[in-house]
Amino acid sequence: MHTSGVHADRILLLGNGASTGFGVLSHGLALPGHLARQLSLRTGRATDIDVIADVELTAARCLDVLRRTNLDRFDAIVMTVGVFESLTQLSPRQWSRDLRLLLDHVERVAPASLRVFLVSIPRMDSVSDFPRLVQWLSDSQAARLNEHTRIVSADYPRVTYLPFSPTDARDVDRYRSADTYEKWAALITPRIGNVLNSRGNSARSLDSTDERRRQKSLDALSILDTEPEERFDRIVRAAKDLLDTSGAALSFIDHDRQWFKSVRGNAPAMQNTPRSNAICNITVRRAELLVVEDARTDARFQRHPLVIGPPFLRFYAGYAIEAPDGQRVGVLCIVDTKPRTFSRNESALLRDLALQVQTELWVRQTVSAT
Question: Could you tell me where the beta strands, DSSP code E, fall in 33-151?
Fold first, then answer.
């Protein structure tokens, strides 16, 4: 789930209950979509939300999920677990133990900038239509588990406990609607937005890269050395035309080369550039947009071969393309032979186009695997 803008906050929404999206057809209409949109309105930045949800996902299983997840990608984890544990009457002692094991793992492996939000277990009548006795037993247990969540959270500086008390969620035609999820998001967005705003924009401005994992993810896409495809060419043309530049390209960073899937305008002059000299090789290491408004005055690039020689680039803007596991494997870029300023709206448009490439790339992988 993505919202338009720049300097995106990357959120992992992990859990059951509120995260699963029953009653609507897409994450955009469920909690992830409403949370992303409301966070962007509050922060003024884009929001990217990855969702891992299962009705039977427990805190113990969340630890297994996080062990398989690259947490360097994220600014925050929002967890909505506990409904299953309250239904199965898990003991508060075991619940606290599971939470501590999970949070200890985050402390060990996640970047110091990452924040964790533990959303409290809501009343059962706001989650599902169970018999009254089941609701009463579950709510009583949830109250005990929530108190232990609050106590555990206080021992971890990067963790915020979020009370979550939605009203009865039943709608006229179906159990949940987009309106229900919008109200749920409104209950937790303010605290999350305030914490993210207090961190500033620097958390993932330049990420380290595990080259082995990155190359493995690129190879798994089976995109290298394939024929041109109109769906990618269309997006590259749009980038060149809408942003009014002399060239645009979609490239992938492979071992010791930069391979181009699509090029337009004067960008073909970049095709013979080895990876070591490719500006996109710098972009692919970044979690954010790379903009060079005038390469002749930028100490990093003023002696670059593509600046002092054909095509004599002065302007460059590029946004990294991710594989499904979050590894950055390629770049959508625009170039020009004239210096120019690049506005916030133009940056947001280039990011939106890069996300379109990413969507097409993931669809291509899914089709190839079937």
Answer: 47-53, 76-80, 115-119
- φ/ψ of residue 133, rounded to 5: -65, -40
Q: What is the pLDDT of residue 128?
A: 67
What share of the chain has pLDDT > 90, as a percent? Answer: 44
C-alpha 133/C-alpha 114 separation (Å) is: 40
Given the DSSP bridges, would you call strands 9-15 and 47-53 parallel, antiparallel or unpaired?
Answer: parallel
Q: Which residues contact 110 (CB under 8 A, 6 or more apart)?
A: 71, 72, 74
21 versus 178: the higher-pLDDT residue is 178
Structure tokens that stand for 7 in this block: 């300097």
pTM over 0.85: no
The mean pLDDT of 329-352, rounded to a whole number, is 93
Give the tens place of pLDDT for each residue, 43-102.
888 899 998 888 888 899 999 999 988 888 889 999 998 888 888 899 999 999 999 999
User: Is 90 exceeded by the pLDDT of residue 104?
Assistant: yes
- List the structure tokens of 41: 């309105």
Give the residue among 42, 46, 41 at the shortest CA–CA distance from 11: 46
Asked if 32 and 13 count as a contact pair (C-beta separation under 8 A), the reply is yes
- CA–CA dist 131, 136 (Å, integer): 9
At residue 309, the 3 state secondary structure works out as: coil
Least confident of 18-27, 130-139, 146-155, 337-346: 18-27
Q: Which CATH architecture does the domain made up of 211-369 adopt?
A: 2-Layer Sandwich (3.30)
Specify the 3-state DSSP secondary structure of 319.
Answer: strand
Beta carbons within 8 Å of 178's beta carbon, 6+ residues apart: 24, 29, 30, 34
Residue with tokens 């190879």: 219
**Matching fold, domains 9-199 and 211-369:** no
For the CA atoms of 174, 178, 183, 189, what is the dihedral angle to 10 degrees? 140
Domain boundaries, the chain: 9-199, 211-369
Q: Scanning the structure block, which residue is given the tokens 């229900």?
A: 180
CATH architecture of 9-199: 3-Layer(aba) Sandwich (3.40)
